[in-house]
Amino acid sequence: SNNYYYLTQWKILCKKLGQQLKYLSIGGLTALDQLAIDILLNYCNNLDELRINNEIDIISYLSIIRQTVKRIHIDCETGIGLDCISLLAFRHYAEKVIHLGRVDVEPELIDSVISTIGSNFSNLKCLSIRLRNFDIDVSTPADFLFDQLEELSLQFVNGNVDLPFQRIIALGWTTIKCLTIQYASLTRESVDEIIRQLPQLQKLVLHAIEFRCDHLSKRYGHRLCVECGRHCWKAMSRLTKLKHLKLHRIIIDDEICAAIQTMSELRSLDLHYCSNVNETIVDVCAQLAKRIPRQKFTLCIVSRGFLSFHNNYNKNLILDIKVAA
């Protein structure tokens, strides 16, 4: 009885406020919460943006989402399957989706999924894909389908290495300005592919990246190589248009510092839980800050331990240091 009373009062409130609501974000809900959101959505005729953070919610809410909603932002950590993508396209909501993540399908379906998304999600700005297998066969020309896409996120799991990454990047993502790579093993060839296929790249996010040697892998299996890591970072120094670089859980060595020093357009560097963060990388950022006096350079460091730096850096360098508990 209490639930009925509260839902009745909630319905009265939704009638009053629903027309005024412009932004709504929905996460994982209980049965009662879901009923309350159902009531709310029935009165939201002027939504500018709807954010959905759970695949079950996407499918269940499709029947009551008003066609008047202007933008749909989908970000599901558990993954979005082919059935959900097809349903969004069938119900004519695809053209409203500006953010789609994370797409998680079987490897043999990845080519058709990319084709389906590119053909139907015409206003998509950000796409996140989770790749679960080494053997990926893709041939869809991305540059013909994704003319509005600006952000691409690739997450590799289950031992994926360099070849799947090269195949995805080789599709041609000419409009991409931000690339995120998680849990991949890269070689010099994959870095070269980034430089060739992503001419407008301005932001690069690398999360727990390893560098693999082809020669060692052929003889001994999956083997990491310090020398190949140096070659990769030397190749990355050719990303001269890069403005933002974000590194997660990566060892900051001399090769990384040397590569960053040559990125003349770089305006911010984020180091999250990286090892060997010391005054060397801070000095590199201070030198970059001096190159264009009227612009600020931001160095953001998130660490689990305390850091100590001297404070006589250029005034254009902004140090943002956070210590995580």
From TrEMBL:
Report the domain of life of the source organism: Eukaryota
Give the protein name, as stated in the record: F-box/LRR-repeat protein 2
Q: Which InterPro entries match?
A: LRR_dom_sf
